[in-house]
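Please check this protein record:
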Amino acid sequence: MPLIWQPFPSEFIMTSSKTSSAKPAAKPRLLLRNATPQDIAGIHALTAKVYAGLGPQGNYTTAQLRGHQHHFPQGQFVAIYDNAIVGYCATFRIGEALALQPHDWEGITGRGYAARHDPKGDWLYGMDICVDPDFRGLRLGQRLYNARKQLCERLHLKGIVFGGRMPGLGRRWQQLKSAEDYLERVRSGALRDQVISFQIRNAFEPIGVLRGYLPMDHESRGYATHMIWRNPAYGSGSSAAESAPLPRARTARVAAVQYQQRAVQSFEDFARQVEYFVDVVADYKADFVLLPELFTLQLLSIENRDAPAAEAVAALTRYTDRIKTLLSELAVSYNINIVGGSHPTRDPIDGHVYNICYVCLRNGAVHEQRKIHPTPNERYWWNITGGNSLNVIETDFGPIGVLICYDAEFPELARHLVDQGAQILFVPFCTDERQSYQRVRYCAHARAVENQCYVVMAGNVGNLPSVENMDIQYAQSCVLTPCDFAFARDGIAADTTPNVEMVAIADVQLDSLAAARQHGTVQNLKDRRFDLYNVTWKDTPPQIRDAAD
């Protein structure tokens, strides 16, 4: 079977079709390749089918599947048969000490997100392999195991380790009363287990039993076989560095605009003010620019009349298409990713008004993130409804997350984004006085420390006397970092003078995050006690969508 390696991105395609010199190659019916974001819906449907017996908690959420790809994209594989995803393999890298000690599935995988991925780990951890039961005659399991081995060899790792199911144990429990005895009988050939026997035939070696590995796996009574495969090529040949994929850019320049609210005469006046700041930070070669929450309320000054707050915000929603067009055109024209603060938008389907951040990338893509938690004032004055979905947005510097103001005060949200792979969190905010600002600022910095990530904040200054709930503003925009030796003193890469219109600009080193997460003075993400606690996110219909649709 031919194996074709793609030089970039790091992926391979394995096809079962045969070619000859007499005929042109036919389109392959069976394809094995790296998973992509476009595959997530298909993988989700596959795992729902395969793990239907385990209930809703047995299936991966779309957020977890995004986490797999963002943490270790070259370690995720799909098998495609006639354009349908019929097999999935998930892996990540891990250090030997953690991989070879007793563990459970939830702890070792970071609650199913592959969040324990260690870019310098010397073992490949087999998180999952699943195959559509209607296509088991294609030997998809064998192909996916081979893909894992080839990746391990290519990265020059010591081997593969995982916890394997013991589906025959439940039927034999009354007879044996011991998972260790059952494993020994399977290994000796006295008993046969469809999973363990298959893995042993594929050169995997049982080194013990993992108790409580996956409690919902009743057939295995929660046990798993601790399996390893030793890379026969380890210690010889080329190093992992020689065969590693080309890296993403690892230093991002971020800018936070402290935007002054002032009266404008027209939308064109507003657009000129926005373009001015985009132009300025683009001259400084910024990769991202963050605008404040609700900066578009400035448009209400055009009519210069007092109106009830809910009526005014409803009128503002009429500018939504023009806002998205403006920000998208500026992003492309100035070659910069614009995190567009937020803008009230009425959903055409449910009729509710949401506080939405439009993220306009320099490649022309437009994404959105709804504010999850409207403040009491937003609900009372403006009838703002909270969103239900929080997902990372893929950029040329990897996945980012957006937490709009009050959302930064809920640690579960930031952890959910970081579990999906986010390294930079953008927090547009709108606060009226110092106490309100400090709540957001202190919480945002806590998110940077506990998640070992960067947090960028941008707020409004000035005032709009004729606009309800926007009469005064307080802001000090900033770029926040974890607190460790690799980062800025006091965990502040850049900040502004309070309540003055200006810009904060800083370079953030993504490699420093990776190093801190694995080898820092403290290792918050790595040291989480998954055996004691976790955050479970309900997988609701996604509200982040391509806003250009």
